[in-house]
Amino acid sequence: MADSKGLTPMMAQYRRIKGELPRDALLLFRLGDFYEMFFEDAKVGARILGLALTRRNGVPMCGLPYHAASSYVGRLLRAGYKVALCDQLEEAKPGKLVKREVTAILTPGTHWDERLLPQEQNNFLAAVHPGTQGYGLAVVDLSTGEFRATELEDLPALQCELERLRPAEIIHPTEAVTLHAQLADGPAAAPAGPVPPPHPTPAEILPRRSARFGWVVNPFEDWAFSPDTAQYTLREHFRVATLDGFGLKGRPLATGAAGAVIHYLTHHLRRDLRNLTHLSFYQRGDYLALDATTLRHLEVLEPLHRDAPRNACLYGALNRTVTPMGARRLRDWLSQPLATLDPIHRRQDAIQAFVDQPSLLERFRQQLAEVRDLERTLGRLSSGSANARDLLALRLALEQLPALRALLEQIATGPRSNSTLPAFEETSAPRAVLLQDLAAHLEPFPDLAELIQRAIVDDPPLSVKEGGLIRDGYDPTLDELRRAMREGKDWIARYQADEIQRTGIASLKVRYNSVFGYYIEVTRANLDRVPAHYQRKQTIANGERFITPELKEIETRILGAEERSLKLEYEIFQQIREQVLARLAPLQRAAAALAQADALAALAETARLFQYCRPVVRDEGLLEIRDGRHPVLEQTLLEDRFVPNDAWLASGPSAATSEAGPETSADPHPRPPQIALITGPNMAGKSTYIRQVALLVLLAHVGSFVPARAARIDLVDRLFTRIGASDDLARGQSTFMVEMTETAHILHHATARSLIVLDEVGRGTSTFDGLSLAWSIVEYIHNQIGAKTLFATHYHELTELAARLPRLKNYNVAVREWRDQIVFLHKIVEGATDKSYGIHVARLAGVPGPVIERARVILANLEEAELNPDGTPKTSTRPHRERDKLRQLAPSAQLDLFSHT
784-795 as b/e, with b when 16 or more CB fall inside 10 Å? Predict the structure, then answer.
């Protein structure tokens, strides 16, 4: 900035306010109908917003309309900047400097604009605290009041959790510069194996924004993350003597992260945090671990392709919630499935109760739809950004609570009909304890609902400072002021009529504006008829404006009443708001209970509509699905019938637990295989099938019913996938490098209790390199890990592994050949295939006939190893050079691989 000497009072005011802000905040300075930016802020704003950059007295400046500021602020936030709004606190008066103050400091993770906040997603601010034993992570959603913390063992675990939560903004200690770079790069940069946390290093300029995930990474004061400082900050905020009740005892990293978030919000961004009434600590071990790759490959939260319809993902197929807060809860459940039996069974019981009473389910959902987004309504009220319409929305929600509570209790304990949904085995219909617990949180608030009904008009204005929001009859003083205003305005009308008659000036008008107040306006043609007692106030283009002692007196009376009326209305609004906030904690518990009930009811509605079954979930390592269906494709394939398929797997022993000696298959009772090796042509449905099984396992861990005739899905500790081809050119990683990185991550972290889904591993390199890798990976999973595995491949040579590995079984996707055509049956059957049908698929894709015919010739020659390097047939049958090289490197293994004797 330029030297402050010689600045005007307004610019001196700007410099003072700017100096009190965080250095990286852009200041929007209110001047009348515009927000102005000056100096370096103006240069940044003009570049990002496409505004004209001008200069006045050598000072760069640009402006944006006050009434359209929201869209401009949103663009600045999306670009990763903090935005400070400096507003005028009083009406402008000639010759007087307007009082101004910063009313809000907005950041990507803390703003309130409903037009920028996705209704069905949380807007998290995250704090990361690195330490020698791992990382602390805390996340806050100011719009809903959610506040959570956890501790994570290594960088991959941290990045996995950040990818799941998708915070809009991340803060970390200033000195943890290595962490800053890794967070900016995103989870794909994580190494495959365990990595120690980075040691703090001196801060330096680093990229502030992740191009991959959109979050903004900001350094913050190191001392705010200190466990001692953080403990004090949290105790002060929650007004408690100890943090043990929040689960933070012996959790210094989580404590540091949580305390830093509170300090950042209160001291750095000047926020009122009354809606943060509770902090919950969670452990990743309580949930099924899903890494970023699995969430992406299975299309759990969003489709892989941006142009795909919204329901082309698991969340879209299941989301039949009727409130935004229920949708957010369902999204959270899908990204963080449960990993223990009791909570899974509790959710299953609740869904069963809904399904068994469809008429009550429908009534509950209809009633619940009236609640809307109670969580964010409470968030706006507690932050001071709410208006009278939010109070009306709250009243409407409160009026539904008694009926919703009664319905939940009736559903939880009422008689059950015979469910039409299939089941794997006979199950009793226990009382839905979870629904009873949720109903208990729906405390009625009749006094608050009645207060809002009496006080707030049915259609209040958006602004809370311009009047018109409090009902007549609510406050006697306000009624008296309004009567004075009405009488004064009636007097003005009579006064104008009297003056027209007295002066004979038919065009005489009594008008008002905010600068000059009330005045008498006379056109230039009638100035010679103006009475002597009129006092000239202003000359205008076509006449003069005057004032009289009578008009001045009534102006004082009217404007005084109006000013006091507006002030009193705002005070009444604030009083009602404070009465609501006095009950904030139980209101938030009710909102959270309704969000859970909405998610459960949505899962029940999906189960009812599509005939899902209740899976049996135990902890014995078994997976059995009968006539399973893909939960997304069966809803999106409108023209074709979806072909159901079975699955049958069991965990094998890991290298650490298996006994010495060879395994035997002499058991008269066949045991499910550990590895299902699936072969078949493209387009036949291999990828669909393995994704389908993985999604059903995920749904069972959510506590949901699953699309199948019957299912037994035991607990797994991790769900890993490696599906599809993708590259990461920004990091210089080829498709095959990404494939091997993701595979390495799986092999490092999977256990015998995991489920692994691998599709076409090894296809990104030469045939024999890829085949050798795929062969070795299958052996390693079988002999060392013991995880249940679905392995889809085009390498039909791998089917020979069934003779070597006792817990591997071959399956293939059935096809039929007829007159040189192939028909895909989309059915998984036992046995191996020895053909890939690639040329048939190319023909179906429309590849020109000559290319197809030439490919057939080349394929025949390749199968007989009779092709010259230039692509022409040859008579010699000398073995392929690459095959020779492979056999020299590993003669015993590869002879078995390619020898059928």
Answer: ebbbbbbbbbbb
Among the listed ranges 36-50, 637-651, 786-800, 839-853, which one has the minimum average pLDDT value?
Answer: 839-853
Fold of 479-578: MutS, DNA mismatch repair protein; Chain A, domain 3 (1.10.1420)
Structural contact between residues 810 and 798, judged by C-beta atoms closer than 8 angstroms: no
Which residue in this structure is represented by tokens 């071959």? 810
Tell me the pLDDT tens digit for each residue of 664-682. Answer: 445 556 789 999 999 887 6
Pairing of strands 710-713, 134-141: unpaired
Alpha-helical runs (H) found in 86-188? 155-165, 177-185
Q: Candidates 3.30.70.360, 1.10.1420.10, 3.30.460.80, 2.102.10.10; correct CATH number of 319-418+429-445+584-610?
A: 1.10.1420.10
Q: Is 280 helix (H, G, I), strand (E, B) or coil?
A: strand
Output the pLDDT for position 249: 92
* Cα(34)–Cα(66) distance, integer angstroms: 5
Cα–Cα distance for residue pair 476/486, rounded to 1 Å:
15
End-to-end CA distance of the chain: 84
DSSP state of 624: E
Residue 64 has pLDDT above 80, yes or no: yes
Class of domain 622-659+669-847: alpha beta
Assign domain 125-286 to its CATH superfamily.
MutS, connector domain (3.30.420.110)
What pLDDT was estimated at residue 671?
A: 85
Q: d(Cα 865, Cα 858) in Å, to the nearest integer?
A: 10
Contact 678, 648 (CB under 8 A): no
* Residue 349, amino acid: D
Token pair for 863:
């199968």
Residues with Cβ within 8 Å of 170's Cβ and at least 6 positions away in sequence, in order, are: 109, 125, 126, 127, 128, 162, 183, 215, 216, 217, 218
> Which residues, other chains included, contact 480 with Cβ-Cβ below 8 Å and sequence gap of 6+?
none
DSSP 409-427: HHHHHSPPP---S-BSS--
Task: Delimit the domains of the chain by residue range.
Answer: 9-106, 125-286, 319-418+429-445+584-610, 479-578, 622-659+669-847
Give the pLDDT band (50/70/90) at residue 114.
confident
Least confident window among 96-100, 529-533, 634-638, 849-853: 849-853
Alpha-carbon span 397 to 413, nearest angstrom: 24
DSSP state of 785: I
Is the fold of 319-418+429-445+584-610 the same as that of 479-578?
yes
**pTM score, whole prediction:** 0.84
Query: Cα–Cα distances in Å, from 289 out to 128, 328, 757?
Result: 19, 19, 14
CA distance 696 to 790: 13
Task: Write the pLDDT tens digit of every residue in 397-406.
Answer: 999 999 999 9
Q: Which residues touch 143 (CB under 8 Å, ≥6 apart)? A: 112, 117, 122, 123, 375, 376, 379, 380
* Angstrom distance (rounded) from CA 98 to CA 84: 18
Phi then psi for 144, rounded to 5 degrees?
-125, -15
Phi-psi region of 826 (alpha: psi -120 to 50; beta: other; left: phi over 0): left
Strand pairing of 125-131 and 169-173?
parallel
Angle between helices 686-702 and 324-335 (to 10 degrees): 110
Task: Answer for the pair 612, 606: CB distance below 8 angstroms, yes or no.
Answer: yes
| Secondary structure element (H or E) that encloses residue 326, with its range | helix 324-335
- For domain 9-106, the CATH class is alpha beta
Residue 835: predicted pLDDT: 65
Give, to the nearest 10 degrees, the angle between helix 584-610 and helix 549-581. Answer: 70
Where do runs of H (alpha helix) occur along 513-548?
A: none
Q: Which residue has the higher pLDDT, 137 or 722?
A: 137
Most confident of 151-160, 615-624, 728-737: 615-624
- Provide the 8-state DSSP code for 267: I
